[in-house]
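User: As part of a screening pipeline, I want to sanity-check one entry by hand. Below is the sequence and the SMILES for zinc ion. Please return the complex as structure tokens so I can compare it with the automated output.
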Amino acid sequence: MNDESKDSVAYSPLLLEYVDSESAAMFQEMVAAGDLSSPLLTCYAALQSELPEGERVCVRVVGTGNLVQSVNDRESREGHPFRIERGDGIVAAKTMPMDSEGTVDILLPTYVFSIEGVGSGSDTDLSLLLHTAAHEVVHARHHLLGTGPFDTCERGDFEWARLQFVAMAGEQLKEHVAETISGAKYPPAGISMKTLASTFDAFWREVSSGLKALPEGDPNRYGDAAYLCLNALHVVWKVLAYYAAEFRANDEITALPRELENDPGWRAMVGDWWPRYTTLLLRVPATVEVDISATDAVVLELAGLLQDWARSLGFDAEDRAEGGYFSTRHWPI
Ligand SMILES: [Zn+2]
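Assistant: Here is the complex for your manual check:
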């Protein structure tokens, strides 16, 4: 092999932001020495091996000391700035939509993907890093398609409540597909029954304390209550979309663990919705290529299911002749 062909191999740019100069200098030394003991570099290397060479240059890998700030620098979220939402066991990396120059940024928080080797080295950490890289690569490649494959909410004129559910359904499907593809190659850490139980507990805690904290007489009170409850539901559903990926094999969802089916928390929050939910998830193939119209049809159907599911849990968001309506039986007035 001559030098020319060696030079022609393309890699993604690797950047750091919101990182102090001392850590940045240390990181540079590790890069120069080819020292892969840094989780950030291990993940970078995994991202490169997962990305087709022709797509690498369109993806930037960004190690950030402030994930929230890095996300908010890149998009405006209309009054609802990005917060970190995740269930236990799900690593908080974030892939941003394609920018106007056709670049997709994968953000890796340095408190998880530490610059120095702390926390790395165990087999679990390594497989989690590989899994996360494979997961984010699916997001990046979906964004690079440039067709907004799961952005059904942007392809229609939806009223308020419908828009919320269509947006949530699209995102859950997007996560489910990414997790299914990455999980087939690198098994995830796995969501335990304990994690599910704490996800459900956290949901009820967040809803009840959040609703209580809403100031009396605030004109945005209803909107804030709706956003709070729907967002909390969405966090639970995303965990379930991940969980479903663990059970998806050969276009089937395998049976749940017996003890889970009898678990009171599961039965109260999920129960009979599970087979209906996963049947819809299964209708979208776990591939990078996406048939937009077929996916949109599933997203719309899933949105209806989520709305019914929310109502059954006591959260009623709907569109009425006079406009968007929200009420919840968990919020006595
Ligand atoms: Zn994801």
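Points to compare against the pipeline: The chain has a mean pLDDT of 89. The longest strand covers residues 59-64.
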